[in-house]
Design goal:
The complex is a heterodimer of chains A (436) and B (108). Chain A has 436 residues and is an alpha/beta fold. Chain A has helices spanning 27-36, 62-75, 107-121, 123-127, 145-160, 170-176, 204-217, 261-268, 330-343, 392-405, 418-422, 429-432, and strands at 55-58, 80-83, 99-100, 138-142, 166-168, 192-196, 200-201, 221-223, 228-234, 237-243, 246-249, 253-255, 275-284, 294-297, 302-306, 312-318, 352-362, 369-371, 378-382. Chain A folds into two domains: 48-134 and 198-274 and 363-436, FAD/NAD(P)-binding domain (3-Layer(bba) Sandwich), CATH 3.50.50.60; 135-197 and 276-362, D-Amino Acid Oxidase, Chain A, domain 2 (2-Layer Sandwich), CATH 3.30.9. Chain A is globular, with a radius of gyration of 22 Å. The two termini of chain A are 37 Å apart. Chain B has two helices and six strands, in the order βββαβββα. Chain B is of the alpha+beta class. In chain B, the strands form two sheets. A four-stranded antiparallel β-sheet of chain B has the order 3-4-5-6, with no helix packed on it. In chain B, a hairpin with a 7-residue loop joins strand 4 (50-56) and strand 5 (64-70). The longest helix of chain B is centred in the middle third of the chain and has 9 residues, at 34-42. Classes of the chains: A alpha/beta (436), B alpha+beta (108). The structure holds flavin-adenine dinucleotide and zinc ion.
Chain lengths: 436, 108
């Protein structure tokens, strides 16, 4: 069944009124603006709400914006609204620690995240917006035999899927990260690590803004400060949404609200196996570059990377209980500091500049939930937990294909909501339990 | 929330406790079907508001108890023993999950 067949524009398509070719950013432009001091054109625009759209996407994070962008770019569907109750990127997409990798444990997960890494590799050029993707390598440390075994398992699955991933020993770790304490006289000695050279970090805000600018230029409407308060369902099918700025009629609603996604699905009467947990992170004052790869330790529940500006970015596991509160806690900073110093004692005098939290939509099997629901026209792209930023591009691409063709792309078929009722869960915990 | 009131020990730092999960009714294993059982295992209400849940006093009395908490403000309204324990002390057990058939009781 085709859920959507309005490929050649609709009565309210963008081309009729107000289509603007995006102003391309270039070195020449930079010089010109630098010399003249003139304003840059707005990267995206505000609009009045239309009474109807072909597709309404709830949530202006990387998932919602990427879905809108690929709908317009790949499928010519431009009567699309992205609604966010705050500003775009105010959810997890503006709060994450921006680690990108594909060295997961299940073949389905590896294939899926690998497609996303590939899209990220060309994203800056595609969007004409510098996302500063730095593929500096990614190390997951093993401090005991069982985690070393899991690393070997992951490396083998990764290699079978064509991913650059291998287990290395303490000497090679020390060579990659001279500041790491690889001695045996510590509480959690480092036995080895899973090394994933294509992994790295990105500038998360730029990804959000780049997709927003790209989608806007193709005619998508981005509505900030527009909260969805209800979803109209009649005869088992979506009819529209209610928002703080008025009602919109639409045959398709996509739930891209991550930590808040249960609340949106509740409005459509769709039950989900999701619990919302806060995840905290912290950043230090900037210092000279000394740390190249991203370091993750599952045993110590900590990970660290150094940004291009020189700050160290730290993350951990989710808070120990569910909550919609985004308050930081002293327990987090204390625990984090202790664990970081265990790995790199020389950081003892570094000062933490700030800490923050975001909401994570955790699923029982550490895998997303994507695709159709029992309510026709109500689609979900949720369950992104602590690891969903890296999946933004591939999720946008596959959700757009699902909307345009009505067929679930093979890459996301394993992630359907019905897997829980069928008892057909994914086994991704071994690669995703520490949030990043 | 920094302090969580244990019905046995009084208010203690929340780091002493383990969050167990939302309170829900376990279907009778002999009467239920696989789908219903899996819904019990996986589906969560996950409300943004008041919720009733089980906690375990890990570093204290090592008892399970039931708390009403607001998930947006983390304010705690009530804290009490599981209903099964109030009905019959023989029933007392570590549930390791949701407490079956909880239907209220005295509040702390
Ligand atoms: C501290 C931290 C570190 C992380 N680190 C990593 C990492 O290193 N790598 C990685 O891959 N992932 C990481 N993640 C996870 C990642 O941030 C998320 O999975 C991802 O950003 C989810 O994107 P999204 O677009 O689905 O949702 P979000 O970016 O959360 O966007 C959801 C949007 O929905 C909006 N919304 C909610 N309710 C409504 C409503 N009623 N009406 C309208 N709009 C609404 C919100 O305002 C929000 O902007 C981390 C998360 C956190 C919190
Ligand atoms: Zn106690």
């Amino acid at each position: 069944m085709r859920m959507f067949n309005n490929r050649n524009g609709s009565e309210n398509g963008h081309r009729a009124n107000g289509y603007r070719k995006p102003a391309r950013y270039s070195a020449l432009d930079l010089v010109r603006h630098g010399l003249s001091g003139s304003d840059w054109p707005r990267a995206w625009h505000a609009h009045d709400l239309r009474p109807s759209y072909d597709v309404v996407i709830v949530g202006g994070g990387v998932h919602g914006l990427a879905t809108a962008y690929y709908l317009a770019r790949e499928h010519g569907i431009t009567s699309v609204a992205v609604l966010d109750k705050g500003y775009i990127g105010s959810g997890g997409s503006g709060r994450n620690t921006a680690i990108i990798r594909s060295n997961y444990l299940t073949p389905e997960g590896v294939r899926f995240y690998d497609r996303s890494v590939k899209l990220y590799e060309t994203l800056s050029a595609d969007l004409n917006f510098n996302a500063m993707f730095a593929q500096r390598g990614h190390l997951t440390l093993a401090h005991n035999d069982s985690s070393l075994r899991t690393m070997h398992w992951r490396a083998e699955v990764n290699k079978l899927e064509g991913i650059d991933s291998e287990v290395i020993g303490p000497d090679e770790i020390k060579w990659l990260v001279p500041y790491m304490d690889t001695s045996e006289s510590v509480r959690y000695p480092i036995l080895g690590a899973l090394y994933h050279p294509p992994g790295g970090i990105i500038r998360h805000d730029a990804v959000v803004w780049g997709y927003a600018r790209g989608a806007d230029a193709l005619g998508v409407h981005i509505h900030q400060n527009t909260e969805v308060t209800g979803i109209d369902v009649a005869g088992g099918r979506v009819r529209g949404v209610k928002t703080s700025r008025g009602d919109i009629a639409t045959p398709i609603v996509v739930n891209c609200t991550a930590g808040w996604s249960t609340l949106i699905s509740d409005m459509a009467g769709v039950k989900m196996p999701i619990s919302t947990f806060p995840l905290q992170a912290a950043v230090t004052e900037p210092v000279r570059p000394f740390l190249d790869p991203v370091i993750v330790s599952g045993t110590l529940h900590v990970y660290v990377s150094q940004t291009d500006r020189g700050e160290l970015v730290f993350g951990a596991s989710v808070d120990p209980f569910t909550s919609y509160s985004m308050r930081g806690s002293l327990e987090f900073t204390e625990g984090l500091a202790g664990h970081v110093l265990e790995l790199m004692p020389s950081l003892a005098r570094m000062r933490v500049l700030r800490q923050w939290a975001g909401l994570c939509d955790m699923t029982p099997d550490f895998s997303p939930i994507m695709g159709t629901t029992p309510v026709a026209g109500f689609l979900i792209d949720v369950g992104w937990g602590t690891y969903g930023f890296k999946a933004g591009p591939v999720s946008g691409e596959t959700m757009a294909e699902l909307i345009a063709t009505g067929k679930t792309p093979e890459l996301i078929a394993p992630f359907g909501l019905d897997r829980f009722a069928k008892g057909d869960l994914m086994g991704e915990k071994g690669a995703a339990a520490v949030g990043h | 929330m920094i302090l969580l009131p244990c019905p046995y020990c009084g208010s203690r730092n929340v780091s002493e406790f383990r969050y167990v999960g939302e309170l829900s009714t376990r279907p009778d294993p002999n009467a239920t079907n696989a789908e219903e059982w899996r819904a019990f295992l996986y589906v969560r209400a996950n409300p943004a508001g008041w919720t009733t849940e089980t906690w375990f006093h890990r570093a204290g009395c090592r008892q399970h108890f039931v708390v009403e908490r607001h998930t947006v403000t983390n304010e705690v309204r009530t804290s009490r023993l599981p209903a099964a324990q109030l009905r019959d002390r023989e029933d007392e057990r570590a549930t390791g999950g949701n407490v079956a058939n909880d239907s209220g009781g005295a509040t702390y």
